[in-house]
Amino acid sequence: GKPTMGVVLAPVTGEIFVGDANGAWTGRVVDGVVTERRAINVGWLPRLRIVASRSHGHDALEKLCQTLDVESDVSVGSSLKFCLLARGDAQLYPRFTPTCEWDTAAGQAVLEAAGGAVVTLDGAPMRYGKHELSFLNPYFVAAASMDLAQKAAKEMRTLLE
To answer: Less Cβ around it within 10 Å: N or C end of the chain?
Structure first.
């Protein structure tokens, strides 16, 4: 399956991110009420910015950053990585370590509603409902475009060989 709607809340900052068939938006939650709602879309910076988990790092991450000429990296919590891409604050989120479907589905829905893409390392769209695999995701890449996702997935495959 494919996620069709996602909601990600960052309780510390009060930021909320929502994505569905009508697009993606962000806002603030104050006393249980959403305020400052605005539409978001993926975007581009002069040089590629990546979001990655330093605590879940992988040897290939540094090599990928060099290969793709990444300007900088930003470290934030799991689903928020997808949201930073959706808001245009970064363009790439490579995942070299295990996640479960519940870690990624909402974030993927937000990112795709904002114009981004999520693919596994074989270049296929990330799918859900993998009960036979205990709902574990394969390694994947989330990106601001399908072209960038495919390019990064190819590089990641090469680095892991």
So the answer is: C
